[in-house]
């Protein structure tokens, strides 16, 4: 596997309280497999070009900030996905992610809440099957999503003690997929 990454980030203040940002990642992945010990006939030469943008804004509020972002992430299958011996070659995953959050902080106390929606195309998920060498297999599902909220917080009543925690409440769904 050869992986080339180019990354650029831009941030701009748009007033005293508002800032805008964008990230852009380009990835070129060249995957070559010339067989494995347990599967010498597996031959693969795949190339992928991924463009992963992220756009967002941050707004300063009293003792904290609010933010909104949208991002795209693409990821290639891993070696195990090809080696699993499936009759169908795995496809790269595609994710669109939207987040809206609020964070507040005071001396000795802080909390945050982030709502998110993640829409997947061709998400690679575990099938529950084990291949001939004992590895778990994955398959692409055409459409799925995750929607939820993540809550986090901390309290630091003294210099020597901090308590912190987080919880994620989400719904994770596969849309219109049947497996035999």
Short description:
With 180 residues, the chain is mostly beta strands. It is 3% helix and 74% strand.
What would the keywords be for this entry?
74% strand; 180 residues; eight-stranded antiparallel sheet; 3% helix; mainly beta; single chain
- Helical fraction equals under 10%
- Class from secondary-structure proportions: mainly beta
* Beta-strand segment tally: 8
Sheet with most strands: 8 strands, antiparallel
Low-confidence stretches: none
**Portion in beta strands:** over 45%
The helix count comes to 1
Descriptive overview:
By secondary structure, the chain is mainly beta. Helices cover 3% and strands 74% of the residues. It has one helix at 79-83, and strands at 2-13, 18-34, 43-61, 64-75, 93-106, 109-130, 136-158, 161-175. It has an 8-stranded antiparallel beta sheet with strand order 1-2-3-4-5-6-7-8, with no helix packed on it. β3 (43-61) and β4 form a beta hairpin. 5% of the residues are buried. The model has no long low-confidence stretch (mean pLDDT 92).
Task: Set out the fold topology.
Layout: E1 2-13, E2 18-34, E3 43-61, E4 64-75, H1 79-83, E5 93-106, E6 109-130, E7 136-158, E8 161-175
Antiparallel strand pairs: 1-2, 2-3, 3-4, 4-5, 5-6, 6-7, 7-8
């Amino acid at each position: 596997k050869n992986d080339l990454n180019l990354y650029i980030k831009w941030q701009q203040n748009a007033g005293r309280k508002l800032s805008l940002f964008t990230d852009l990642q380009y990835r070129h992945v060249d995957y070559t497999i010339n067989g494995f010990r347990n599967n010498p006939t597996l031959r693969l030469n795949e190339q992928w070009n991924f463009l992963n943008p992220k756009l967002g804004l941050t707004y300063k509020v009293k003792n904290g900030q609010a933010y909104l972002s949208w991002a795209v992430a693409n990821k290639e299958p891993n070696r195990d996905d090809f080696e699993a011996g499936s009759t169908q070659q795995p496809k790269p995953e595609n994710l669109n992610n939207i987040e809206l959050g609020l964070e507040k902080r005071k001396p000795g106390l802080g909390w945050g809440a982030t709502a998110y929606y993640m829409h997947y195309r061709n998400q690679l998920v575990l099938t529950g099957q084990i291949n001939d060498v004992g590895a778990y297999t994955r398959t692409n599902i055409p459409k799925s999503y995750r929607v939820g909220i993540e809550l986090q917080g901390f309290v630091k009543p003294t210099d020597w003690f901090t308590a912190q925690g987080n919880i994620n409440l989400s719904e994770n769904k596969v849309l219109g997929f049947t497996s035999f």
